[in-house]
Amino acid sequence: MIFYITPANKDFFKETLDRYFQKRYDVFVVKRKWDIPHNEGREMDQFDTEFATHIIWEENGKILGGARLLPTHQPYLLGDMFPELLENAIPRDPRVWEISRFFIDLPPEFDRAANPAVRRLFYSIFEFGCLVNAKEFIALTEPHIETMMRYINIPWERTSKIFTIPEGGQMVSGKTRVSLDICNRIRETLPEQMIPTWIPLTPSLLKSVTQGSNQLSLLK
Hints:
Layout: E1 2-5, H1 14-31, E2 38-39, E3 42-43, E4 53-59, E5 62-71, H2 77-81, E6 96-104, H3 114-131, E7 136-141, H4 143-151, E8 157-158, E9 163-164, E10 170-177, H5 180-188, H6 203-211
Parallel strand pairs: 6-7
Antiparallel strand pairs: 1-4, 2-3, 4-5, 5-6, 7-10, 8-10, 9-10
Helix pairs in contact: 3-5
């Protein structure tokens, strides 16, 4: 199940959010050894604010993937910490959103499905972008994720060269437009059993993004 945990509906999902922050600690601090803020086995930083939306993939009580989305008219990682990676054209626009803390962490029995899993999570991210009328995503990501985005027809454009972080991994920043057409392209790459099934996109569902509802947990 994919959860869209927004500022408006986060009170419905406190336990899921807590397990998600624990998983982020496991992925980014323990496994990747990033030197980033954490406390009591939970990875959170100054950008996990009231303005953040978290897209979380959970199956059978286990968090398998996730991403943090922030509108760029609020504080966000690239704009506030790494503006040089945006060629000094720093977006401050409610229709431009940043994707950060993207991860897929599958158990061994799911290894063969790793690529479809990435596509599934990206599909959910882009569908959310359409729901909130976003026009562009920006991100600081790893080169292998960049390669995957291009493979599944996401029109990714770099805004920096690949660089090495102190922990030894490589990162790159970039941007992509958001549209229903891109959503449909990603959907076409998904195996039938991984195609998410939405409840009908009604005005009341769209309203729930900003006014608070647990309906956004119904993407399976």
